[in-house]
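Meet the record:
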Amino acid sequence: MEWGMANRMAQLIQSDGHALFLPVDHGYFQGPTRKLEEPRKTIEPLLPYADAIFITRGVLRSSVDPDDAKPIILRVSGGTSVVGKDLADEGLTTSMEEAIRLNASAVGISIFVGSDYERESLLNLAKLVDEGEKYGIPVMAVTAVGKELEKREARYLALACRIAAELGARVVKTYYCEEDFDKVVRGCPVPVVMAGGPKVDTELEVFEFVYDGMQKGAIGVNLGRNVWQTDFPVAMIKAIRAIIHQNATPKEAQDLCDSEKAKEHKNS
């Protein structure tokens, strides 16, 4: 691995081999998402506890101070919205030159395996990998499912992750699934980070799926709404960070979260 590529990967994946990525890119297709209406207010208190942030160039420039930033994974695909015909019809929205100009540590792109736009999204990934390898910038592939949430099962996720790795992605972001997630990770020869898992109602359930996914081989998470849409996002990210970097159990993470919430109550 070239020095620049290795250096950027080391910025993202910490010395323990684990990573906590904070995605705040949701507005690129959802608009002003709940609790992300004013990105700067959401991002600033969480930034110290993230290893990297996944973000679009517009929100990066407008809402993150360059003298107080974390490694950047730049969202470079888009072109669709929740009110459009098909979320899977994405294209490349940001050039590799722009990623270099913004000093990105990586770029991220969604792929839609099994959709009507499978071929286009996979060729976009391959093209982006060519550009990234040329400049030593890793590509993170996101195994997106559009509105078809039933695709969040192991067989589909394993297929999508493996294809992403085969096409040259250096990291793959995919959904956690309760059954056979270890097979998803085992079949992917590059590091896997977890996006959201099944819809859950409690903090403990989030901690449980993060812990289980880590035990089954994921290197970390790329969790957004499970963090910043909660009532206590700082407490939440601190607890998730403890699972990822200190091997905390779900119960230990819950205890830490409750303790942090009590502190916030006291100081408010």
